[in-house]
Amino acid sequence: MANNTAPATSAEAITNQTAASGISRKLDAFIGTPLPDISLSGFVINLLLAALLAYILGLVYVRYGRALSNRRLFAQNFVLLASTTMIVISVVKSSLALSLGLVGALSIVRFRAAIKEPEELSFLFICIAIGLGFGGDQRLPTLIGFVILMVIVIVRGLNRDREQGHNLYVTVTSAAPASISADRILKAIEPHCRSVNLKRLDESNEIIETLFAIEIDSFDALNKARADLRALDESVSLTFMDNDRQVQ
């Protein structure tokens, strides 16, 4: 009985080993997909196109964007972001292992600067889309999509320029929120302006910050508004920014 069991056990072990080896080879073939042969000329063309479109995107963003931050400075990141995305996608597009590694890397990436404006995030996604498109060697769809998006942005920007009447943004910040309210700030600035619109209000126990879009007629009226705002409290800090917001 012992002699009959030994050959059966040995055969079963060989069968299991063969099956495991086959599964291992299939798994290695699935995960370890060899990297594609990247055409150097095609890679360079895609990289240049990605950089060019990102540069154009930056110009459009500076001119027609609506973010209240320094748009010119923010737009300087577009070329680098789109080009880097294009390079990464060119390398990992056919490798499951590298793609999973990229997902893991992206899961720990965080923007160090706070992005308060949804528009900023939208333009960052356009940059990434440019890199993804050219990294995947999809030139025509990427170009067509980019042109359509830019037409939409420009048309919206032109319509906004015709509709809006304010010519300044005023940020009022104070470290005494208990004594200064948005209503007091509005009453101080409103008599000197043709129109006043509250755009943003941030308030906590330590600080209050308001952003107004105003339409003002003269520099003298601006000085009077500034004096009345300063008279509210010693801690008041003021920032006046023109409508273009293209601060160097």
- H/E element string? HHHHHHHEHEEHE
Oligomeric state of the chains? single chain
Radius of gyration: 30 Å
- Walk across the major sheet and give the strand order: 2-3-1-4
How many strands in all? 4
The termini sit apart by 92 Å
Described by the principal axes of the CA atoms, the overall outline is elongated
Helicity, in percent?
55-70%
| Beta content | 5-15%
Q: What average pLDDT do the residues reach? A: 77
Ranges where pLDDT stays below 50 over 5 or more residues in a row are none
How many individual helices?
Answer: 9
| Total number of distinct structural domains | 2
Biggest sheet, in brief? Answer: 4 strands, antiparallel
Quickly give the structural class.
Answer: alpha+beta
Notable characteristics:
single chain, 248 residues, 2 domains, 9 helices, four-stranded antiparallel β-sheet, 4 strands, Alpha-Beta Plaits
Structural write-up:
It is a single chain. This protein is α+β, with helices and mostly antiparallel strands. The protein has two domains: 40-163, no CATH class; 168-242, LOR/SDH bifunctional enzyme, conserved domain (Alpha-Beta Plaits, 2-Layer Sandwich). 60% of the residues lie in helices and 12% in strands. It has helices at 2-31, 40-64, 71-75, 78-92, 96-106, 118-135, 139-163, 182-189, 219-230; strands spanning 168-174, 195-203, 208-215, 237-242. The chain has a four-stranded antiparallel β-sheet, covered by helices on one side. Helix 2 (40-64) runs antiparallel to helix 4 (78-92), helix 2 packs antiparallel against helix 6 (118-135) and helix 2 (40-64) packs parallel to helix 7 (139-163). It starts with a helix and ends in a 6-residue tail after the last strand. The mean pLDDT is 77.
